[in-house]
Inverse folding.
């Protein structure tokens, strides 16, 4: 545990309150259910692979951060609430946020971690094709090619 | 703890479709420790997957947290969103089953979380 005063010394007043290292350019997260368990963390594994090999700045001068939330839930979950895709661009932060409804819940729940990682990687490709291909200030062809090579290299395809 | 659970069970009616959830660190780093009155009493280093908060809801994630924000301080100067935390359902059942589970997890946090220096999950303002 670190006291507020120690945190101020270490991180400076006003900065430490966020309390975290800067977010990576490609940030992946997920909405899941109990069935998924801790396999949800394959999205962070994929995030690490992508950030270690690709630079968002190569594909867009406008988008500084790409946040993708993979929705891995059964279609009837959430008390009748339907989870739909969402796309939002924050001009203040130059951040593109995508919420992508995957249809992989049953297969994801029954998969092992390696298979789960592959499934999420496939969803990343699909989400990119659906949303990033439409963005003017984004070199989708280059991104798709680099992503494809990355998937092959890491045996995610 | 047992007195509190007994009191809580006696006071409440039971209903189905509740869940106990964890808000887990999606990024390694420094997370605030919240105290009574929504004050930050300190900070704790959490690794990816460490649990910041244990909570209960009968409304699912969307009903419990609007948008992607899981915590905003009183001044509104900073917030913790789905960039930093992942909402993960860990148990499902009736309200009474879940309230017992939640209390047990909160009171025993220091024993199972890997953060033995913390008496409760850092994102829980009070034990209740």
């Amino acid at each position: 545990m670190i006291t507020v005063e120690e945190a101020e010394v270490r991180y400076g007043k006003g900065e430490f309150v966020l309390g975290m290292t800067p977010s990576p350019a490609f940030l992946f997260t997920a909405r899941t259910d109990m069935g998924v368990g801790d396999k949800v963390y394959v999205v962070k594994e994929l995030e690490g692979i992508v950030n270690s090999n690709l630079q968002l700045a190569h594909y867009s001068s406008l988008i500084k951060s790409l946040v993708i939330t993979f929705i891995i839930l059964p279609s009837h979950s959430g008390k009748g609430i339907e989870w739909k895709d969402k796309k939002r661009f924050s001009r203040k932060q130059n951040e593109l946020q995508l919420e992508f409804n995957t249809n992989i819940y049953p297969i994801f729940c029954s998969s092992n971690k390696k298979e789960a990682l592959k499934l999420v990687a496939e969803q990343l490709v699909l989400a990119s094709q659906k949303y990033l291909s439409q963005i003017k200030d984004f070199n989708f062809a280059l991104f798709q090619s680099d992503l494809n090579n990355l998937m092959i290299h890491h045996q995610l395809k | 703890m047992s007195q509190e659970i007994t009191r809580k069970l006696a006071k409440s009616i039971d209903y189905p479709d509740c869940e106990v959830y964890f808000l887990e660190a999606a990024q390694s780093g420094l997370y605030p420790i919240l105290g009574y009155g929504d004050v930050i009493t300190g900070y704790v280093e959490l690794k990816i997957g460490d649990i910041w908060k244990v909570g209960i809801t009968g409304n699912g994630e969307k009903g419990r947290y609007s948008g992607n924000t899981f915590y905003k301080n009183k001044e509104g100067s900073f917030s913790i969103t789905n960039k930093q935390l992942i909402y993960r359902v860990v148990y499902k059942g009736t309200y009474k089953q879940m309230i017992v589970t939640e209390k047990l997890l909160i009171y025993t946090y220091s024993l199972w979380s890997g953060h033995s220096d913390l008496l409760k999950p850092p994102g829980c303002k009070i034990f209740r």
